């Protein structure tokens, strides 16, 4: 139950860049059963959209997440077009945001599922996303009307350089990682917020999907569980990537299969130096509470078993 001490988060600013138009949320009409999937980019967003879609549609094999679950604060297509398309949906809506809470309209009518992932793993996934983007991707982000700030350019050839620039400039060339995590961590005790971690989904996907279903109030026909689990597997999503990637993967060389890449953690171990890792861990400790840093590094299950020291 909502208490007097748990005031609802309030929107205090707008965010605009080559990707964002946070004003879309200002005119968004919430429904009582809306689901908002919130992440920093490449933290398990598409996987969670797939999970929620499978729960809503009870394991159907034709759930086109790329069409049904829009990124609300992406500035293309234009706000009127996007809002009209979302309003026309008649199923339980499940939407995506990459905004920090203070740039989002937070509604007690919606349920929010926040997904976290170790920042080093985020960057490795983000690099694949960025390095394989094609001219259509750059054109949509840089040339469409309404861009605020500088355009986004191609990444460097070195993934280590990409990581170090991302760390030094806090999310460059996208947006702040620590700000995003910190803002959502501050509202984790709101009754309509659930925290999920990429590592926990990897370690116990059935258990985490059951947690999400319970949080969303979705009762699953027991006979449909096998289909749901199969359709949320990496193998299934890779084989049907055109139903998960935006525009069926048209923005990436190699198509949708490039967007649904590998889904693994730890690829940074053989690239980052000990000094690089120390710099990341120092930044993590400086930016986030110790409990949050432990959760972000290990997930709920591992952090509960062996939390890192403050």
From TrEMBL:
<dbReference type="Pfam" id="PF00685">
    <property type="entry name" value="Sulfotransfer_1"/>
</dbReference>
<protein>
    <submittedName>
        <fullName>Sulfotransferase domain-containing protein</fullName>
    </submittedName>
</protein>
<feature type="domain" description="Sulfotransferase">
    <location>
        <begin position="32"/>
        <end position="281"/>
    </location>
</feature>
<dbReference type="InterPro" id="IPR000863">
    <property type="entry name" value="Sulfotransferase_dom"/>
</dbReference>
<comment type="similarity">
    <text>Belongs to the sulfotransferase 1 family.</text>
</comment>
<dbReference type="InterPro" id="IPR027417">
    <property type="entry name" value="P-loop_NTPase"/>
</dbReference>
<keyword id="KW-0808">Transferase</keyword>
């Amino acid at each position: 139950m909502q208490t007097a001490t748990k005031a609802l988060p309030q929107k205090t600013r707008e965010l605009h860049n080559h990707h964002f138009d946070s004003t879309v949320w200002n005119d968004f009409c919430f429904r009582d059963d809306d689901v908002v999937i919130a992440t920093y980019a490449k933290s398990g967003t598409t996987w969670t959209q797939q999970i929620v879609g499978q729960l809503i549609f009870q394991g159907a094999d034709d759930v086109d997440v790329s069409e049904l679950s829009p990124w609300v604060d992406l500035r293309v297509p234009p706000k009127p077009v996007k809002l009209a398309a979302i309003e026309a949906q008649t199923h339980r809506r499940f939407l995506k945001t990459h905004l920090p809470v203070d740039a989002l309209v937070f509604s007690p009518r919606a349920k929010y599922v926040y997904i976290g992932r170790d920042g080093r793993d985020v960057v490795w996934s983000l690099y694949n996303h960025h390095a394989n983007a094609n001219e259509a991707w750059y054109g949509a982000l840089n040339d469409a009307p309404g861009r605020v700030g500088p355009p986004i350019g191609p990444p460097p050839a070195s993934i280590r350089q990409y990581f170090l620039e991302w760390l030094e400039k806090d999310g460059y060339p996208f947006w702040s990682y620590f700000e995003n995590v910190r803002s959502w961590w501050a509202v984790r005790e709101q009754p309509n917020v659930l925290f999920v971690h990429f590592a926990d989904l990897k370690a116990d996907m059935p258990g985490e999907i059951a947690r999400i279903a319970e949080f969303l109030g979705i009762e699953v026909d027991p006979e449909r569980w096998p289909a749901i689990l199969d359709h949320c597997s990496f193998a299934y999503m890779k084989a049907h990537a055109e139903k998960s990637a935006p525009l069926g993967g048209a923005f990436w060389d190699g198509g949708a299969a490039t967007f649904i890449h590998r889904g693994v953690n730890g690829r940074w171990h053989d690239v980052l130096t000990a000094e690089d890792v120390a710099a990341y861990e120092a930044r993590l400790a400086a930016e986030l509470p110790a409990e949050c840093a432990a959760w972000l590094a290990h997930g709920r299950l591992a952090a509960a078993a062996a939390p890192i020291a403050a």
